[in-house]
Amino acid sequence: MSTIIELARERYARVRPSYELTAQNLVTEIRHGAISKNLDCVVEGRAKEVSSYVLKALSSKDVVDPWADVYDKIGLRIVVGHTLDLDVACDLVSELFGEPVYVTDDRRMDIPDNELRYPRLHLQVAVPPGLDASDGVEGKPTCEIQIRTEAANLWSRMSHSYLYKPSSRLPKVVRRSLYRLLALVELYDSEVERAVRAMANDRDRNLNLLVSQLERIFYAFCAADYDADLTRKVSAVVLQSVRESERAAYANKLGQFAAEMRADLENVYREYGPGSTPAALGTYLMVSQPESVAIFERLSNAPRTLSQVWKSNGIPEDLLQDMKGVWA
């Protein structure tokens, strides 16, 4: 077995740099996909370290073929804000990469009332050829994607080295203490979910969703501070140009717009956005703001209505004219 593992180690060491690039390709794809889903999440990815790969091959009883059975050589983590977004993240993964090879979803388990267990949600997916930086030289790679809430992620990161990779067996009292913390994870997630459901009835819900989505899209293209008060003021005006019956879904529509116009937006922000020469000269102010995405969408689909509400709310006309020139 040691000879087989050594050959697998050498094989993985050769291909790992391309797997690291593949992981970053997958991260970028999910981040942009999350925009269209209006999904607020953190996405991280990596190729397993060679030492970790060898350790898993040596220590796991389930490993017969070290190359095929260590299936998380490429690993991603999607961390969402609350439990209501877990299924949204699952749907996103399926839409981007097809049906998972397998799913481990411990949320559906019938756990006894007197037990606490970590709610695993793991998906193994095939890496699409267009995102595979290894070009399939070592076969078609798969990727394990772990989806967690922020609370579950905090517990997992803190406890992983103690519970799953111990150098010696922990005393029972220590192991029990770690598992008792899962009660706090469950309570935290439950309360956050309750708050999210309550906020769904807030009168400013549509504006709040829009501002959050605009920031999410903006940061996918730019890494810069912005005037938050101006964003909220202009976003409220832009929202007036959207039919009332469509305002609840407008944030999602912006995600689709950003995905479709990704190349154009990249060009605009590169030429006129934060860090550009015009921005340094103090011109094209709105391009350095998140609400620029909504302005571009309205200029594409409802320019006349946008001009009317812009004027009626007393926002300087030259700001909108600049945006028209940029987007044209």
Automatic annotation (TrEMBL):
GO terms for biological process: guanosine tetraphosphate metabolic process. SUPFAM superfamilies: Nucleotidyltransferase. It comes from the Bacteria. Residues 45-170 form the RelA/SpoT domain. InterPro entries: NT_sf, RelA_SpoT. It holds the Pfam family RelA_SpoT. This is RelA/SpoT domain-containing protein. It comes from Actinoplanes siamensis. The lineage of its organism: Bacteria, Bacillati, Actinomycetota, Actinomycetes, Micromonosporales.
